[in-house]
Amino acid sequence: MRLALIQQANTADTAQNLDRTIGSIRKAAAEGAQVILLQELFNTLYFCTGYDEGAFSYAESSDSPMLKHMQSLAAELSLVIIVPFFEKRAPGVYHNSAVIYDADGQQAAFYRKMHIPDDPGFCEKYYFTPGDLGYQVAHTRYGKIGILICWDQWYPEAARITAMMGADLLVYPTAIGVLATETETQKTEFREAWEMIQRSHAIANGCYVAAINRVGTEAGTTFWGDSFVVGPFGQWIARAGDSEEILHANIDLSLIDEHRRTWPFFRDRRIDSYGGITKRLL
């Protein structure tokens, strides 16, 4: 599977953001990509840095012209495209969502972010209703792809369930960075923790993991980029810097079975002992 992660800085001009992304998709396809991964809320600013009722105007229906365009692009270029977007489901009900289009343009999965944060600079509970579709795996032309979004990446339960559903690749579209009040030391610690938790998902589940982050500074938050792809042992396959980039990575799905025979975590799970995981506290 040949991946292209499109790491981008956005402006308030959604049409321009979309046009630039489409240009990058076409470039990535010409360079051999089969699967295109876009960042969280790929065509807007990360408006969740504060409370702004006007930001709801960014939301789109699940059959919006933007999504139809991406669907057509997937079919035209024989690409799998993962499209995260701000979904307006009904008046007053909005989701942080993603759709996966297969290489024939058909919808292969639709996901609504399950874990919604509420922290300084990440005021998502004001905007997003928690997902109600469960975890999703798309069986695409090029492989089985599990889709999770940003705050989901901190929860091993989400990664485990999605891997148990058959995902060869876990994809995490993301918008993460540091606030103006945070130090360089904190930035380093936060970034390393972000990488570590996702690498651990790859190891624990014997699968590939790809994280796509944005770059640039928006409303005092500096997004650090560093999009990456790691293998089933957490090994680095590709890693971006802190500026705009199309990050390419080749992953060999045939290695997953070999890895899971060597490190048989799925075989040795004591499923009879995990009942407590469904409780808030014990």
How does this model look, in words?
This protein has 282 residues and is an alpha/beta fold. It has one domain: Nitrilase/N-carbamoyl-D-aminoacid amidohydrolase. It has six helices and 15 strands. The protein has helices at 14-30, 65-77, 156-164, 184-205, 255-262, 265-268; strands at residues 2-7, 35-38, 80-90, 93-101, 107-112, 136-140, 143-147, 169-173, 177-178, 208-212, 215-218, 221-224, 228-230, 236-239, 245-250. The chain has a six-stranded mixed β-sheet. Strands 6-7-8-10-13-14 form a six-stranded mixed β-sheet, covered by helices on one side. A three-stranded antiparallel β-sheet has the order 9-12-11, with helices on one face. Helix 3 runs parallel beside helix 4. The longest helix has 22 residues, at 184-205. It is globular. The model has no long low-confidence stretch (mean pLDDT 97).
Helix-strand layout with pairing:
Elements: E1 2-7, H1 14-30, E2 35-38, H2 65-77, E3 80-90, E4 93-101, E5 107-112, E6 136-140, E7 143-147, H3 156-164, E8 169-173, E9 177-178, H4 184-205, E10 208-212, E11 215-218, E12 221-224, E13 228-230, E14 236-239, E15 245-250, H5 255-262, H6 265-268
